[in-house]
Model the fold of this input.
Amino acid sequence: MRSSRLGGVPTTLPAPGTGRVGQLALGLGAPTDLDLAPEASPVAPRTTRPLPDVAHVRGWLTPPEQRTLVEQFREWARPPAGLRHPRVPTGHLMTVQSVCLGWHWQPYAYSRTADDTDGAPVKPLPPALAALARRAVADTGADQGAGSPFEPDAAIVNLYAPGARLGLHQDGEEPSSAPVVTISLGDTCVFRMAGTDRRTAPFTDVQLASGDLLVFWGRNRRIYHGVPKVLDGTGPAWLDLPPGRLSITVRETGLP
Done:
């Protein structure tokens, strides 16, 4: 696989407490402890399987867990090796903004340094995030029948500002066939899946809301998937995330 000779474009986040215009809750201010209680979540945890070896868990993360991840994202997004718009080999700038942990991914290769921006060493994958991904795999049964334990070593964290989307693609650069874990925060999105051998219809669409979990593995580990639409203004204001959706995708690369 080749990458673009042009670099990505570094980006920065607005300061905390700014920029949730249009979000639900209508600017009611900071949440109270009661607002953040797990039982305050409007959707009880519920697992569905839209396709074989694909699990969607609604309301998997509590509000406090979501807030913690957003706070950590603000640190991950800072340079060096910070948030940027990646660029595909054709030169097209992706609409999503991305920061990587453990391994740096640029279309379509992994490295230990942010080669498409400042060349700095990639930030390590936090042990707590790796543990959360292992919990996701266990909660969805994606580890059943696996020949070895799930050992995540990389995360791609994408921020979908209003108007951003992600075309159908395979997670195919990793030698490992271990499960892929995606955590959604902020605005609800339409997550689209095609097939492992096609990116054309028929599609299976699911809506991923803030706190939802999606895991795919086994026969659908390399399914074509993407995000054609984000539903603006549907995320909780108490999350203190810039407008849009944040996805945290954790995987085991199998790279040395």
